[in-house]
Design a protein that fits this description.
alpha+beta, 4-stranded mixed β-sheet, 8 helices, globular
Length: 219
């Protein structure tokens, strides 16, 4: 059975690969699993039919037979556990890859999201100009720690894994920020991830969904 994921009908990120379904699309592409998409509008995600799948009214959701999941991290982990390619074969390596998935979503992403919320929702407040540098300093702390751990390595562990996939999707949220540019090895890390054929296929699919036309075909 081919799984189905829900995606935005008109993604707020304008197809730039930042919406939450991107990590799920990327995971499917990495393991070579076909999938189908169900487009939902911004109003539909708040309706009972969608909230029966995702109680918080967000995307993506995952449906396969009688299994329904929500939360991108949980969905990527499910894909990684049922297909070869995103988790190491040895138990210790597998545990470390999963650890990095949690680190991406629980430790690195929160200060980045706080900055985004401030930029979109608080930019007209009198205290915004003073608060933004404080938020960015919090991001710098996490990026410095991550940069130090990564060092000159290509990936967080020996080989690319679901941990890298989730971490890169978190870091890509900073691509328009000068903060990320202060850490050249993290910029190079993202570039390596974006050069993966599976990433390009997922990105093109999400962009095509926004544009309302089929993905471009590789030469």
């Amino acid at each position: 059975m081919i799984p189905t994921i829900s995606v935005f009908e008109h993604s707020p990120d304008r197809g730039q690969g930042l919406a939450r379904d991107m990590s799920v699309r990327w995971a499917f592409e990495e393991v070579g699993q076909a999938y189908e998409v169900r487009q939902v509008s911004l109003s539909a995600i708040k309706q009972p039919a969608h909230q029966a799948l995702h109680p918080f009214g967000q995307i993506p959701t995952y449906e396969e037979g009688d299994l329904a999941l929500f939360e991108s991290g949980a969905i990527v982990l499910h894909i990684a556990e049922h297909h070869v390619g995103l988790l190491p074969g040895d138990p210790n390596g597998r545990a470390r890859a999963i650890m990095w998935m949690f680190a991406a979503l629980s430790t690195v992403e929160p200060p980045i999201v706080q900055r985004e919320i401030a930029m979109y929702m608080e930019h007209d407040k009198t205290w915004y100009e003073k608060r933004l540098p404080i938020l960015e300093d919090g991001i710098r702390v996490r990026l410095h720690q991550l940069s130090t751990r990564l060092g000159k390595a290509d990936w967080l562990e020996e080989a690319f894994s679901a941990g890298d996939l989730m971490m890169m999707q978190v870091l890509r949220r900073l691509k328009t920020s000068s903060v990320l540019g202060e850490f050249p090895n993290l910029c190079a890390y993202i570039t390596r991830g974006e050069a993966r054929p599976a990433f390009r296929r997922a990105y093109d699919a999400q962009l095509a969904a926004f544009l309302g036309k089929p993905p471009k075909q590789a030469n």
